[in-house]
Amino acid sequence: TILSKNQKNLGTKPGTLQRGFNSIFAAASVKAAKAYYVEFARQQSELAADKRLKIATIFTYAPNSDDYSDGLLPEEDFDTGALELPDREFLETAIGDYNQMFGSSFDTSADSFGAYYEDVSEKMRNRQLDMLLVVNMFLTGFDAKTLNTLWVDKHMHHHGLLQAYSRTNRILNSVKAYGNIVSFRNLEKETSEAIALFGNKEAEGITVLKPFGVYFDAYLEKLDQLSRWEPGELIIGEAEQDLFIKTFGELLRLRNILSAFDEFEEKDPLSPRDLQDYQSEYIELYRQRRAESEGERKRINDDLTFEIELIKQVEVNVDYILMLVEKYRDQHAEQSRQEVREDIRRAVKSSPTFQNKLDLIERFVDSVSATSGEIDEEWKAFLTDQKAIELAGIVKEENLKQPETERFINAMFRRGHLETSGSDIDQILPRGSLFATGADSRIERKKRVIEKLKTFFDRFHTLG
């Protein structure tokens, strides 16, 4: 279905983090847009609230919307007065859904509809919306780096086709190196003609992705090169490590392209377990090289690029880890328990976000038993205790003011980031001698405290 495909193209898979992409769906007519909106709502009603995509729609009157003989899409029109009464009533209801979703109060009146358009634009750019259903609006001129997919169920050609396709071409990072066009109509001929008419005829291979087989063959060749190292093998020697970093990075880039093709998932010969083992070694080498670079102990090879963003795109999340912990608790055979525990370790070690939290997660696994209650509640209680213990350790080591430190760090968790540039950090420091020098000086102590609190915050803030 379109919704399940949309989850994939947004970069979400079961047990993985959502990496911040969204999409536009271009329908052929107001009638078609209404039908899609109703069907999407029906399918979403069967899902838990936290699993539903945030979908909105926006349209105005669009005569003969599926046939533009000049190849140009109509200029955006904010006049909802030309809509037939049933269409305007439907749009009013859809905007009401939007208002309920975001706590706003827009409607189809002349004074409010323009503000609705601007708010939708902002929420698309901020990735607060997962998908926007349109007829003609937003297909010309709108740019958002987070927009990576255009769904097309309308006839387009020439300049209008390229205008619509170009909505997805803002490069964001190594994850979004291109846009995805998913067409439910055969527009191959129109696409080739548009590229030839408005661009270099030789550029089509650059503009449009090559067939699946071209990338898959390159991927298999890269896998063959990767087989030089066993999954989970400790790679010794700088030259050998450099070669592994380069090879695995190239493999990750190919996987990123191939993920746009439906057939890749069933044909991929690399098992999830082996991929996690390779990722664990890759992340460990990244950690080592970054530490060396920060310490300036040795020159880092400038030709090496770590594709950490590509790993973060599909890394596991807390819910997935807790699901494995629950599975571990429910196993009775010792061998089965050890296998699940190894799955937990492998999942955590292959994640840039969770790798430095392995000791916490393993202690939590040790703490659960057959008589434990709900795993989610156990995890929250465990985190609360661990945060208190580790923060108390920092307070004691640095002789900080305990109530002020607790208030400061709790405020940072609420904000979602650690702010150390203001005066708040000074309020938690102990009084010190004006004549203290070296490690005891106020400046050095402040630097040390900030570093410890940063490590503490990074350790806990992604764990729920």
UniProtKB/TrEMBL annotation:
It comes from Varibaculum cambriense. This is Type I restriction endonuclease subunit R. Pfam families: EcoR124_C, T1R_D3-like. One of its GO terms (biological process) is DNA restriction-modification system. Keywords: Endonuclease, Hydrolase, Nuclease, Restriction system. Residues 209-460 form the Type I restriction enzyme R protein C-terminal domain. One of its GO terms (molecular function) is endonuclease activity. InterPro entries: HsdR_RecA-like_helicase_dom_2 (IPR055180), P-loop_NTPase (IPR027417), Type-I_R_enzyme_R_subunit (IPR051268), TypeI_RM_Rsu_C (IPR022625). Residues 20-186 form the Restriction endonuclease type I HsdR second RecA-like helicase domain. CDD domains: SF2_C_EcoR124I-like (cd18800).
